[in-house]
Amino acid sequence: MKILVINGPNINMLGIREKHIYGTQNYETLVETCKKTGEQLGVEIECYQSNHEGNLVDKIQWAYFNDIDGIVINPGAYTHTSIAILDAVKAVMIPTVEVHISKVEEREAFRQISYIRQACYRTITGYGIDGYAMAIKSLANGEYKL
Hints:
Elements: E1 2-7, H1 19-22, H2 27-41, E2 44-49, H3 53-65, E3 70-74, H4 83-92, E4 96-100, E5 122-125, H5 130-140
Parallel strand pairs: 1-2, 1-3, 3-4, 4-5
Helix pairs in contact: 2-5, 3-4
């Protein structure tokens, strides 16, 4: 099984940005957590981060042509604005889990809208970097239904 972990804008700034919201762990720790979880489950993990919407769409489409079995996605601010990312996930029909480090449901009103959620079978919020491990386990355990 191969799982692609996609992170959107500013996730590369973990440990630097708004530590009271996102914690002190950095992006490298996030990648290590994902890869370690994959190793424990016998799952191949590829991590990708971009601050550019089109690059994220390209990577989702890349997943389709490269036999990716599942996607874990944190689109960052694009969660609340990007129909293009939503359409890309819908187009590839790869089981996808939406992840957010913070509890977006307890934050600003504009963060209550998630376009990507419509294409995901599960959303995990508020567990910090551990939410990524939960998402990987969910995909590895086949908890999704298409």
